[in-house]
Specification:
about 90 residues; alpha+beta; two-stranded parallel ribbon; 4 strands; elongated
Length: about 90
């Protein structure tokens, strides 16, 4: 096991995960919200503006980037136009 810093809240914890046990449930909820967004809004090879995805899902840019780096979102990530993030 490793001593890690949580990607969400910044606290230190011992685990192999990127987020602490307190934030793990938050990640699962937000990933579910992103999956729902993709199922309801994504079609074909359209491109999507990252600011719109953030606005529609309520997921922060930092967390959205982390999720898009995961293999389960790879197809969708290739259709994201990052542009300027506020």
């Amino acid at each position: 096991m490793n001593f890690n810093k949580c990607c969400r809240c910044g606290c230190f914890f011992v685990s192999e995960n990127a987020v602490c046990p307190n934030c793990e449930q938050k990640d699962l909820i937000e990933m579910g919200r992103l999956k729902n967004y993709i199922e309801e809004n994504v079609s074909g090879s359209d491109f999507y503006n990252m600011n719109n995805v953030i606005s529609c899902t309520g997921i922060t840019a930092n967390n959205l980037n982390r999720f898009l780096a995961q293999s389960q979102f790879a197809d969708f990530a290739s259709h994201i136009e990052k542009g300027n993030l506020d």
